[in-house]
Write a structure and sequence with these properties.
about 10% strand; Rossmann fold; about 45% helix; two-stranded antiparallel sheet; single chain; three-stranded parallel β-sheet
């Protein structure tokens, strides 16, 4: 039977349930190769050649995959649809092609999907492809920079600076941005300004406040009065006036569009604001929801939804809330992020007709934390 390899045992269990006994689904338990722990692991003088090794804790998982392939060398790599997932598939292929001649670089043995549902997995099996070497190269560039910057510079900083300071591909750049922002804050010159507001009551004794925006026939600027004397003169003039009359009230209807579906960043922000979750905890819970097949892939910067998901979402709104709450046409959001991976979807539930309570009724057995995060995602998507 074909051997399907994914990253985690939880994901393997879910996919094996969909594929049945005709497939063997195994987990690699994450990355299966890493840099050799030496300063020479990357050689900048030799086209940045990398020396890889298989960690001890990964060998038993590799051996289990090899053992399964000895019965049927039909390998299917079904790791996550991002840079890290593509890298894991590439590492597996590089290791296994030395053992099995049927496994080659030009062989179409890679499948990917953004949601772990029966339909998505079966559809992906019909469209296998080669490993995307552009994604692999992006992974190699990142890992190489991590090594050259962090692994080599940090020991120097440990010797030269107190408090165990370290360097890194990302943290060093962030530190510079923070430093530059702090310098701008220190250089900022504050100034005083004054504004005037008044409290009014209507004939029903209802009170409301209004800000003075026009004085002496001139519209005031954003900061009101720029001197205490001018503000005092205006205030004195207002005090001398005994009677005020509101001559007109202008009411305007405004439409407030819901925010776009979640990306990784916006999910982390909203989960922190509403659920008080740290980013790492949000991603840990989202990973469990994804591996159980409840949400789409949680590492994405896309805000678009698949056409089928849009229809399912509109059907769910119509069923749950009625036509009065259904927008006349589909909302289309433009992604402002540069280099956004539009091939991916936003983070959304895989079954849009069910909130967390509905999933638990169907036997999902979500923890309270999982249910809270799922409902957060469900409400944003439905909105």
């Amino acid at each position: 039977m074909p051997v399907v390899v994914v990253e985690s045992p939880a994901k393997a269990k879910t996919i094996e349930k969909y594929l049945g006994k005709d497939f063997k689904v195994l987990a690699s338990y994450g990355h299966v190769r890493d840099f050799k722990p030496k300063y020479e692991a990357v050689d900048p003088q030799n086209n940045f050649k990398v020396i890889w090794q298989v960690p001890t804790n990964a060998r038993k998982h590799i051996n289990a995959i090899i053992s399964a392939l000895e019965s049927d060398p039909n390998l299917i790599l079904a790791t996550d649809p991002d840079r890290e997932g593509e890298a894991i598939s590439w590492h597996l292929e590089e290791i296994l092609k030395t053992k099995f001649r049927d496994i080659t670089t030009d062989h179409k043995n890679r499948i990917s999907f953004t949601s772990i549902t029966k339909e998505s997995v079966q559809s992906a099996l019909k469209e296998p492809r080669q490993i995307d070497m552009d994604l692999v190269d992006a992974y190699l560039a990142r890992r190489t920079m991590d090594f050259l910057v962090g692994f080599n510079l940090s020991p120097i900083l440990w010797k030269k600076l107190p408090c165990g300071a370290s360097a890194g591909r990302v943290q060093s750049v962030c530190l510079r941005l923070v430093s530059e922002r702090e310098q701008k804050i220190e250089q900022f010159e504050s100034r005083n300004y004054w504004t005037i507001s008044a409290a009014f009551k209507n004939t029903k004794k209802q009170e409301f406040k209004a800000n003075l925006v026009v004085f002496d026939g001139k519209k005031l600027g954003k900061f009101g009065f720029d001197s205490a004397e001018a503000a005092s003169n205006a205030e004195q003039l207002l005090k001398e006036l005994k009677h005020y009359e509101i001559r007109s009230i202008i009411s305007k209807d405004s439409a407030l569009n819901p925010p776009p579906p979640f990306t990784t960043a916006t999910l982390q922000q909203e989960a922190n604001r509403k659920l008080r979750l740290k980013s790492t905890e949000t991603m840990r819970v989202a990973q469990k929801l994804y591996e159980a097949g409840h949400i789409t892939y949680m590492r994405t910067d896309a805000i678009n939804m698949a056409p089928g998901a849009v229809k399912e979402c509109r059907d769910a709104v119509n069923t749950l809330f009625g036509t009065n709450y259904l927008s006349q046409k589909q909302r289309v959001y433009k992604n402002k992020a540069k280099n956004s991976q539009e091939a991916h979807e936003c983070i959304r539930p895989t079954r849009l007709s069910q909130n967390a309570q509905g999933l638990n009724i169907q036997g999902a057995s979500l923890t309270q934390l999982e249910a809270n995060l799922y409902d957060l995602i469900w409400k944003r998507t439905i909105a």
